[in-house]
Specification:
Elements (H helix, E strand, L loop, with lengths): L1 E4 L2 E4 L12 H26 L11 H18 L7 H10 L1 H9 L4
Antiparallel strand pairs: 1-2
Helix pairs in contact: 3-4
Length: 109
């Protein structure tokens, strides 16, 4: 893989194990699909909720909190009256109870 970040390019070799037939286009599509999900959902969770910095590691707590974060993320995406970023929606919901209720009410639509 080749990664370009600002003016620096790095190259690294990756190995995959798959049950797919030996079809380069199909394998490349599966790999890109995986990284598309990783880069969109997990990046959003980390930027919006600082998920990578979480120190919650005991028992079922990490899975439970991950579920709540995804629920909150989906609710914030459904609420469309405020055009700010997800991070700003989260901040606004923390500061304005009326907006928080609006986010929670968007779930019933």
């Amino acid at each position: 893989s080749e990664r370009r970040l600002w003016n620096k390019t790095t190259t690294e070799v990756r190995f995959y194990i798959s049950s797919l037939e030996n079809n380069a286009d199909k394998i490349a599509k599966a790999i890109r699909s995986h990284w598309g999900i990783e880069n969109s959902l997990h990046w959003i969770l980390d930027v919006t909720f600082y998920e990578d910095s979480s120190r919650i590691r005991k028992d079922n707590s990490p899975e439970n909190l991950a579920l709540l974060r995804r629920l909150a993320l989906n609710l914030m995406k459904q609420e469309t009256s405020f055009k700010g970023s997800l991070k700003m929606k989260r901040y606004r919901a923390a500061m304005d109870n009326n907006y928080l209720v609006k986010i929670l009410a968007s779930a019933s639509k």
